[in-house]
Structures are given as C-alpha cells and as structure tokens.
C-alpha cells in the first residue's frame, strides 16, 4: 500500500501527465526498444509507428495516477489490458524492464521538474500497479491453460480452409495440429496469431476476432488485407496471411481472450452494427444469438465501401431468410458501384438509424474509428444509456 504522502505526490503529477503524457510514453518506447530489442518480438510495430500505442499507454498512466488512491475503480480497464497481455505472452519478468524505462523517460522529458521525490513516488506507485497486473494476468494464464481444450502460450494450428469473403477480406478456418480439443470462448473474443514472415527480423503478433459462434471444432478468423495507403505501409501480418498462408499451412495461436463479449443474460432487443472488417465479432454474436435458446429480436446493420468490399453478405442474407421472424438485416454502402443494391447509400445517420432500431435495445458496434465515433454519437442522441452501449476497438484503446 502507498502512504498518504506518496499518493499526494502522484496526484500532483496528474496535470503534468495530461500535458506531457504522450511525449513521455514515446520516449519510453524508444528507450525500452533500444535497451531491450527482443521486446520487438511482442509489440505491434505498426501501432508504435502510428502513435497509437504511446497514446494508449499515456491514457493508462494518466488514469492510474488520477485513481492511485482507488485503483479498484479502474479494475475493468486493467482487466481489458491484462487480457491482451496474456494473449501476447507478457510475463512478470517484463514488468521491471517497463518500470525502469518508464521512470527514465519521465526524468528525460521532465528534466529538473522530475525531482527525486517525484521519481521515488512513481517507483513505488509503479510497483503497486505492476503487482496488480501480474496478479490478474496470473489468474488469466491459469484459466486459459486449465479450461477444457485450453493451453498456455502458443499452439500450432493448421489452416483447414481459406475462403475469400470479398476483394479485401478472407476467412481462415483453423484446427489444432495435434488433433486435440480447442478451448471455447465468448462471442466477441479474439485469438492472437504469431508469425515471422520471410525477411522480417522479429516475430509479429496480431489479435483477430473470432468470426463464428463458439462450439465449432475450429476457430474462424476473418482478416482484412491492409494495403499501403499514403504514408502507411501495407500490414505485415494481414498481407502475409492473405498472400503467403494457404490451406495446410501452420499458424501459432494463443488461447481466446478479450473482454468485449455478448451479454446473454438479457432478453431485450439487440442491435449489432459493424463497419468494414468490424463485422467479425458481430457475426460471432449474431450466430450465437440465432443458435441459442433466446428469442431476442435482432437487428444487424453493416456498412461497407461498396459491394465488392462487403464480406459474408450471402451468409447474412441466408441467416435473415432462415430467421426472418427475429432477424432484420440491412447493409449500407458508402459508394455503391453501378448495379449494386443496398438499403442505404452514404453513411448511417440518426434519422435512418432511428427508423430501423428500437431505443430500448442493447447496442454493440465495431469498425474503423470514424465509424465508431459517428455511431456512438448517434446512439447517444437516441437516448440510449451508457450501460446499453458496447463497443470494441481494433488495436489500442482510443476515445470516442
């Protein structure tokens, strides 16, 4: 436990972190990778390059400082981060490395303002925070390993099927090479794929949402090929999966993880909204709802650039025909090509959303950040309370 003086010092740094947080975390990652380049085998290089990871860490450090005397209030955030850490293989021995370089970054950025008192207080606070993460993650590792069909670390899976879903999205059906059982999961969770493409110095890990309902003898991930756009290079892992991985090839995978999951305890209507490849957790949730013993009415809305980018359209259309009494589905195309039909052209807006949904529903959504911000704003304008709004970021947490 931290004493009152240490807590006071930490809280006094909150305004500084609000201003200099991202500068500190960018410096931290530069120092840590320079001192420990082996950690580049774990961290997402693209998120580093685009500034997403430093921004997410800055927000986490800020939240920890602001709640240092009541860390239990940010336990849900801690558990979400810990889920990703377990999926990536973050271990207790990594935490001292992070702590050492984080404190060094604070000193470097703040200079003389980083007094011995402040650095000592942050060292104590980091120790407490790290212990919380290590404890939570230890339970998660144990749970992942001891569940039926579970395992620790990474396990080899064979690509049983590779199915092109659109011009840019492909599904991979994965079965364990050892022929054993696989762990179940909650709709909305993801698995983590570890690859080392030819010519790459480090291994690369990516989280991919499971795009089928649990209970199958396989895992299905549905991956968008991230092509080079402007200054952003092509996605290393997605390009590798699309172009190099074929049926019969092996991928290394960690057990399912994630805290964005379908709440199946309720009976009110449910609205699922997805943009682009954000459909992956939504399809898992949709299949689960339709195959379960619930009678909840479901509205599924998917937005895509055009028909050639619309993945799983035939599958959703078939589900709608099979469950027409409970499921209504709509698709919105930003710029439909000639001859392509859709339920709405352009973007999802408030009047249209209001016309096809019910405000008493639970709302789940996932997609690109601009899509999510627009949907979140529209849902709130419908008067939907926070506890019925659920969403998932692909990559480090951001703000809506």
From TrEMBL:
<comment type="similarity">
    <text>Belongs to the globin family. Two-domain flavohemoproteins subfamily.</text>
</comment>
<feature type="binding site">
    <location>
        <begin position="276"/>
        <end position="281"/>
    </location>
    <ligand>
        <name>NADP(+)</name>
    </ligand>
</feature>
<keyword id="KW-0560">Oxidoreductase</keyword>
<comment type="similarity">
    <text>In the C-terminal section; belongs to the flavoprotein pyridine nucleotide cytochrome reductase family.</text>
</comment>
<dbReference type="Pfam" id="PF00042">
    <property type="entry name" value="Globin"/>
</dbReference>
<dbReference type="InterPro" id="IPR023950">
    <property type="entry name" value="Hmp"/>
</dbReference>
<feature type="domain" description="Globin">
    <location>
        <begin position="1"/>
        <end position="138"/>
    </location>
</feature>
<keyword id="KW-0223">Dioxygenase</keyword>
<dbReference type="GO" id="GO:0009636">
    <property type="term" value="P:response to toxic substance"/>
</dbReference>
<dbReference type="GO" id="GO:0071500">
    <property type="term" value="P:cellular response to nitrosative stress"/>
</dbReference>
<dbReference type="InterPro" id="IPR017938">
    <property type="entry name" value="Riboflavin_synthase-like_b-brl"/>
</dbReference>
<keyword id="KW-0813">Transport</keyword>
<feature type="binding site" description="proximal binding residue">
    <location>
        <position position="85"/>
    </location>
    <ligand>
        <name>heme b</name>
    </ligand>
</feature>
<dbReference type="InterPro" id="IPR009050">
    <property type="entry name" value="Globin-like_sf"/>
</dbReference>
<keyword id="KW-0408">Iron</keyword>
<dbReference type="GO" id="GO:0046210">
    <property type="term" value="P:nitric oxide catabolic process"/>
</dbReference>
<feature type="site" description="Influences the redox potential of the prosthetic heme and FAD groups">
    <location>
        <position position="392"/>
    </location>
</feature>
<dbReference type="InterPro" id="IPR012292">
    <property type="entry name" value="Globin/Proto"/>
</dbReference>
<keyword id="KW-0349">Heme</keyword>
<protein>
    <recommendedName>
        <fullName>Flavohemoprotein</fullName>
        <ecNumber>1.14.12.17</ecNumber>
    </recommendedName>
</protein>
<dbReference type="InterPro" id="IPR000971">
    <property type="entry name" value="Globin"/>
</dbReference>
<feature type="active site" description="Charge relay system">
    <location>
        <position position="95"/>
    </location>
</feature>
<dbReference type="GO" id="GO:0019825">
    <property type="term" value="F:oxygen binding"/>
</dbReference>
<feature type="site" description="Involved in heme-bound ligand stabilization and O-O bond activation">
    <location>
        <position position="29"/>
    </location>
</feature>
<dbReference type="InterPro" id="IPR017927">
    <property type="entry name" value="FAD-bd_FR_type"/>
</dbReference>
<dbReference type="InterPro" id="IPR008333">
    <property type="entry name" value="Cbr1-like_FAD-bd_dom"/>
</dbReference>
<keyword id="KW-0521">NADP</keyword>
<comment type="function">
    <text>Is involved in NO detoxification in an aerobic process, termed nitric oxide dioxygenase (NOD) reaction that utilizes O(2) and NAD(P)H to convert NO to nitrate, which protects the bacterium from various noxious nitrogen compounds. Therefore, plays a central role in the inducible response to nitrosative stress.</text>
</comment>
<keyword id="KW-0520">NAD</keyword>
<feature type="region of interest" description="Reductase">
    <location>
        <begin position="149"/>
        <end position="400"/>
    </location>
</feature>
<dbReference type="InterPro" id="IPR001433">
    <property type="entry name" value="OxRdtase_FAD/NAD-bd"/>
</dbReference>
<keyword id="KW-0274">FAD</keyword>
<feature type="binding site">
    <location>
        <position position="190"/>
    </location>
    <ligand>
        <name>FAD</name>
    </ligand>
</feature>
<feature type="domain" description="FAD-binding FR-type">
    <location>
        <begin position="152"/>
        <end position="263"/>
    </location>
</feature>
<dbReference type="GO" id="GO:0020037">
    <property type="term" value="F:heme binding"/>
</dbReference>
<keyword id="KW-0285">Flavoprotein</keyword>
<dbReference type="InterPro" id="IPR001709">
    <property type="entry name" value="Flavoprot_Pyr_Nucl_cyt_Rdtase"/>
</dbReference>
<dbReference type="GO" id="GO:0005344">
    <property type="term" value="F:oxygen carrier activity"/>
</dbReference>
<feature type="site" description="Influences the redox potential of the prosthetic heme and FAD groups">
    <location>
        <position position="84"/>
    </location>
</feature>
<feature type="binding site">
    <location>
        <begin position="393"/>
        <end position="396"/>
    </location>
    <ligand>
        <name>FAD</name>
    </ligand>
</feature>
<dbReference type="GO" id="GO:0046872">
    <property type="term" value="F:metal ion binding"/>
</dbReference>
<feature type="active site" description="Charge relay system">
    <location>
        <position position="137"/>
    </location>
</feature>
């Amino acid at each position: 436990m931290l004493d009152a003086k240490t807590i006071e010092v930490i809280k006094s740094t909150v305004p500084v972190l609000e201003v200099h947080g991202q500068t500190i975390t960018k410096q931290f990652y530069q120092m840590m990778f320079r001192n420990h380049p082996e950690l580049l085998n774990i961290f997402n290089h693209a998120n580093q390059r685009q500034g997403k990871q430093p921004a997410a860490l800055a927000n986490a450090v800020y939240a920890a400082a602001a709640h240092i005397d009541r860390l239990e209030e940010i336990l849900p955030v801690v558990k979400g981060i810990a889920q990703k850490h377990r999926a990536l293989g973050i271990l207790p021995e990594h935490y001292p490395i992070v702590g050492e370089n984080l404190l060094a970054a604070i000193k470097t950025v703040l200079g003389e303002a980083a007094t011995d008192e402040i650095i000592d207080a942050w060292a104590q606070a980091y120790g407490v925070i790290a212990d919380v993460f290590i404890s939570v993650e230890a339970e998660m590792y144990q749970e992942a390993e001891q569940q039926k069909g579970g395992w620790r670390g990474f396990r080899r899976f064979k690509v049983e099927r590779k199915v092109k879903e659109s011009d840019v999205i492909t599904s991979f059906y994965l079965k364990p090479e050892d022929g054993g059982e696989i762990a179940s999961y909650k709709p909305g969770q993801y698995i983590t794929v570890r690859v080392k493409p030819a010519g790459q110095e480090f291994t690369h890990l990516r989280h991919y949402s499971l795009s089928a309902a649990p209970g199958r003898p396989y895992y299905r991930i549905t991956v968008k090929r991230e092509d080079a756009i402007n200054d952003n290079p092509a996605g290393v892992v997605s390009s590798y999966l699309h172009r190099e991985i074929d049926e019969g090839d092996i991928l290394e995978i960690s057990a399912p993880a994630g805290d964005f999951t379908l709440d199946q305890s309720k009976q009110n209507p449910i609205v699922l909204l997805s943009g682009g490849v954000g459909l992956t957790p939504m399809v898992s949730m949709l299949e689960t709802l339709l195959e379960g013993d619930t009678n909840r009415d479901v509205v599924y809305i998917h937005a895509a650039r055009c028909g050639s980018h619309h993945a799983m359209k035939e599958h959703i259309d078939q589900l709608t025909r099979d469950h027409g009494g409970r499921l209504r589905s709509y698709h919105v195309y930003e710029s439909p090509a000639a001859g392509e039909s859709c339920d709405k052209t352009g973007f999802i807006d408030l009047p249209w959303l209001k016309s096809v949904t019910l405000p008493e529903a639970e709302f789940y959504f996932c997609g690109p950040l601009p899509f999510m911000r627009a949907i979140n704003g529209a849902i709130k304008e419908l008067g939907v309370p926070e506890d019925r709004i659920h969403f998932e970021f692909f990559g480090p947490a951001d703000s809506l």
